[in-house]
Amino acid sequence: MGGLLAVIISRPESYRVARSTTIAAPAADVFALVNDFHNWDDWSPWAKLDAAMKKTYDGAAMGVGAGYYRIGDDKVGEGRMTITESQPNEKVGIKLEFLKPFAAVNATDFTIKPEGNGVTVNWTMTGHNDLMGKAASLFMDMEKMIGGDFEKGLAQMKARAESKPKL
């Protein structure tokens, strides 16, 4: 038992999942997709997993203080997102709270940087592993669990932003 505890304690204190893509669209168009939770159904990899998922929005309409709460089936779970930072056309920071099936709080950032005729979007999630998180990390790898979803979401964001009529 002591050996297992030593292994658990030695696990990383934190984790980070990050993905990026280049999108041939103006920074303002990409920013609008992230900065307003009402636009997330257009690109979020989790939006269509549960047709019966209940969503509510509160706080500001968009930007700092905007909130999004969801409750769904086992694939979606229950959670909340709150925009904590909004730098127009550059960055959106989000407090991501998982409530069920497990409780966790993560920081999620979207950064948007000009690149050629478009932008590079970086999507990053970081979190802290308490003792239970360290034990769970023996069996669950956040990179493997979430990385593919980030890739899918960025691909859908790219498709949506690049198909939007230009002004």
Q: In short, what is this structure?
A:
This protein is of the alpha+beta class and 167 residues long. It is built from four helices and seven strands, in the order αβαββββββαα.
Structural features:
single chain, 167 residues, alpha+beta, Alpha-D-Glucose-1,6-Bisphosphate, Chain A, domain 4, 4 helices, 27% helix
Strand order, largest beta sheet: 1-7-6-5-4-3-2
Distance between the first and last residues' Cα: 64 Å
Structural class designation: alpha+beta
Question: How many E-type strands?
Answer: 7
Word description of this protein:
By secondary structure, this protein is an alpha+beta fold. The chain has one domain: Alpha-D-Glucose-1,6-Bisphosphate, Chain A, domain 4 (2-Layer Sandwich). The protein has four helices and seven strands. It has helices at 2-9, 27-35, 131-136, 142-163; strands spanning 14-23, 54-58, 67-71, 78-87, 91-100, 104-115, 118-128. The protein has a seven-stranded antiparallel beta sheet. It is globular and about 60 Å long.
Helices and strands, with pairings:
Blueprint: H1 2-9, E1 14-23, H2 27-35, E2 54-58, E3 67-71, E4 78-87, E5 91-100, E6 104-115, E7 118-128, H3 131-136, H4 142-163
Antiparallel strand pairs: 1-7, 2-3, 3-4, 4-5, 5-6, 6-7
